[in-house]
Amino acid sequence: MARFRTWVGIALAGALSVSLAACSSTGGKRAEDARKAAAAQGRAAVNTPRWTFAMITHSGDGDTFWDIVQKGAEQAAVKDNINFLYSHDDEAQQQAQLVDAAVDKKVDGIIVTLAKPDAMKDAVARARKAGIPVITVNSGSEESKAFGALTHIGQDETIAGEAVGDELNKRGKKKALCVLHEQGNVGHEQRCDGVAKTFRGTLSKLYVNGTNMPDVQSAVGAKLQADTSIDSVVTLGAPFADTAVKARTDAGSKAEIDTFDLNPKVAAALKEGTLGFAVDQQPYLQGYEAVDLLWLYKYNDDVLGGGKPVLTGPQIVTKDQAAELAEYTERGTR
Amino acid sequence: MSTVTDHKPLDERLLPTSPLRKLLARPELGSVVGALAVFLFFAFVADGFLRATSLSTVLYASSTIGIMAVPVALLMIGGEFDLSAGVMVTSSALISSMFSYQMTANTWVGVGVSLLVTLAVGAFNGFMLTRTKLPSFIITLGTFLMLTGMNLGFTKLIDGTVSTKTIGDMEGFSSARAVFASTITVGGVDVKVTILWWLGLVALASWILLRTRTGNWIFAVGGNEDAARAVGVPVARTKIGLYMGVAFGAWISGQHLLFSFDAVQSGEGVGNELIYIIAAVIGGCLITGGYGSAVGSAVGALLFGMTSKGIVYAEWNPDWFKFFLGAMLLLATLLNAWVRKRAEATA
């Protein structure tokens, strides 16, 4: 036992001295802290009462996309003097119960995603009955109005897909592959169908298991080897673009990789030219606008959109914009 | 002349025990103490937790877990696991919805068909277990994966999308909704009907366990299967029955899902089986079988509901929820073990 302790002590001392001696002059926590200090310190810009808004999404645990939405919402909450609460569950029943809990708390506004509209119907109705204004974000543009929400903020997945199809035509592509990483996701199907609608070449679908990256890589690689005439691959999430690039290298293919959504790696890859283009739906904007529009409604009874959804995308990002976006993706706001 | 009384020592099982000892020997005592502590904690910390509407939401959340935790607890007392319990709920809802829709039948027909099919899946689990002698962990893991695939595959094949079509405008829907997913208003507070289902199941399971021959069989097969078989307990029949009990719970939960939302997502339910097991274990069930109670599983489910919603009322970061759940599981199990040791020590 005593000997074991000595070893642990030596190991700890060793690790500490190595980490002190080997400071990195680039990147890391220190660079991040410097960036944070340089950013404006958030203070409320208004003197309205401190309202409480709750946001309930269908996100799973630890999702990068929803992290950006949350950041946008928190930024707006600081500015508008809002007490902002965030909760999420990927099971429809649980998400509905979280909305119920927010209504019980008598919050002043609710922001909710309608990925599973049927399940959220009663919970949203209960919020409306309690006189709480509701704004829907990200998914549910068709149901939002019928449920009695003020506005819907998000991207129409079909329109986003069509934009990708147009861009592929512009680049003279003939044969594209759409990689779906979540079996049973309606939005993903809509994206691929949107691409097929405007794309003049042929489009094939490939279903992969998104929770297992090595599996994704081997599946895409195998497909590229099997069909060498594929000249473009469209992935539906930023983390999968990087994996598709690796798969392309494995297969020795010349196909261009394009993706939906952004992250730091995608921005860097766009700058390098390993990726063709990305389609951004600006998640930061979805969170930020949702809080801001609720505030405007409470403060001034303002409603945006004229009964139509407010679209935050699609925005095509290519090599030209990638340089400036790289900084924002590092910051975790794009 | 006094008569000499015979001082033959009584059999120890017939000795009168003090009420305190009796209480300490109850499997659910540890969880009741834990539940009280969690309740008081959130009552102080979480603003609005004690409102009637909030408590009703907490009870509803607990009942959706509890309805499944009761038969799962019985199964665990019988010494087995069911990892397919989570997706079976979704399967049951999907079958009911798609059968009614495709056949354009009264929704009660779908409900009946769903009951038969779900019970058949439960019977399949039990039959495979007793026939193959493989551990239930393996058998039900297989069923779990097959059901997950069938949920997605069949829904896509029949409906063309990943969720079922709405059956809200079909005959029998409103009466089925009244039975499985209605809301009763008591003194201005909405109470969900699942809470009644839950309490009913707890009462029924407690009666079976403590007052019937079947209950003795369940404890016997979980405690020592070979000894039970030697004294004439029908082991295979008991275990198949227990798996069908879990299927029955899955059917009730599935119908609730369907009739409260009138459309079902095919990819859901994965992972919930562990939550049911957690509720049963917190409530005093032993992983090794032969010990536990139905009331305990209900307290376990209540603990789960209070924690999951209490965190929301307390305005904490929900990222930590799983951490609290894990810590609670460990604490409750340790407390249970400690109480049981105290109870078994002869005073």
UniProtKB/TrEMBL annotation, chain A:
Residues 53-296 form the Periplasmic binding protein domain. It is found in: Cell envelope. Keywords: Signal. Its main location: other. CDD domains: PBP1_ABC_sugar_binding-like. Residues 1-21 form the signal peptide. Belongs to the bacterial solute-binding protein 2 family. This is Sugar ABC transporter substrate-binding protein. It comes from Streptomyces rubradiris (Streptomyces achromogenes subsp. rubradiris). The lineage of its organism: Bacteria, Bacillati, Actinomycetota, Actinomycetes, Kitasatosporales.
TrEMBL record, chain B:
The keyword Membrane applies. The chain crosses the membrane at residues 29-50, 57-77, 108-128, 134-158, 179-209, 274-300, 320-339. It comes from Streptomyces rubradiris. InterPro entries: ABC_transp_permease. Keywords: Cell inner membrane, Cell membrane, Membrane, Sugar transport, Transmembrane, Transmembrane helix, Transport. PANTHER family: ABC TRANSPORTER PERMEASE PROTEIN YPHD-RELATED-RELATED, XYLOSE TRANSPORT SYSTEM PERMEASE PROTEIN XYLH. This is Xylose transport system permease protein XylH. It comes from the Bacteria. The keyword Protease does not apply. It is a multi-pass membrane protein. Part of the binding-protein-dependent transport system for D-xylose. Probably responsible for the translocation of the substrate across the membrane. It is found in: Cell membrane. The lineage of its organism: Bacteria, Bacillati, Actinomycetota, Actinomycetes, Kitasatosporales.
